Amino acid sequence: MILPSFVLPAYCNLTATQTGMDSPEQCVDIDHYRSYPWPVVYKYNSRGYRDAEWPENLDQAIWCFGDSFTVGLGSVHAHTWTQQLQKQSGTRTINIGMNGASNNWIARKIQEFAAADIHPRAVAIHWSYLHRRESESWALESLVDQCWQKFYNNIRDDSWPRCEHFRNFELLPDAIKQEIKTQHLDPEREYWSRYDCEKTLDEVRMLEFDVDATPEQDVDNLLDAIHSVEQLGLPVMHSFIPNYAPNLATQTQIEQYCSQQGYCVVADLRILDRARDGHHYDILTAQWLAHELVQKL
Length: 297
Fold this sequence. Notes:
It is built from ten helices and six strands; from the N terminus they run βαββααβαβααααβαα. By secondary structure, the protein is an alpha/beta fold.
């Protein structure tokens, strides 16, 4: 299987009409939500991405990486920037978008992609919010283990073996793993339920951001992610979600710096319309972004 780590287990083959912010309970504007004129359906492929199944030949596709703006939260699938890019470029796009993705996660996935024997036409990146700066791996692993120990010791039967580290979950007997997954993961009660037992530490790292980071560190973190991708030798196009920086001056600083470095950048993306959830953008903004990207192919 090519790119075996490119799987989001919680979304594999899932079909839904609501998710996350795109729901009556969590949307920004309930009146806008109710008046949105198109039916929104989320259909995820066998890898858990909001996309059709991957074609057999993955060469010369445009690979699109990002967060919920790349997933297209609140939008009809055809309205998303990845689908508009496919339509305007005449090239198959591959959507590698994950709700809540950090810039660190995006950069890691592209690095994994670069290690595979795939020759894309382009890699289009829609970078996420500056504040999504992941904690160091060791700090998160310690936090995950603390949460796991509290959860596991609370439900553990005396006959169950000890399991002090989350990474050892897979070593538990199958019957115990099944019981944990089906009987003990209550999202309303257990903090640990935020961590899907089928996910790797790498895939849950984005759930805990470094809240103590300074604004300067946040900027450096994004620039480090961009530089790490640029060093891979891929045909990369950079863009940034709307309002990803705390203010326009910081946003301008980042985008001008990238342009000065000779990077291929779509700058100054503004929201022209709103998706059903009231936070993400819809087809007009997606069409503008796709047009700008096509000009850079």
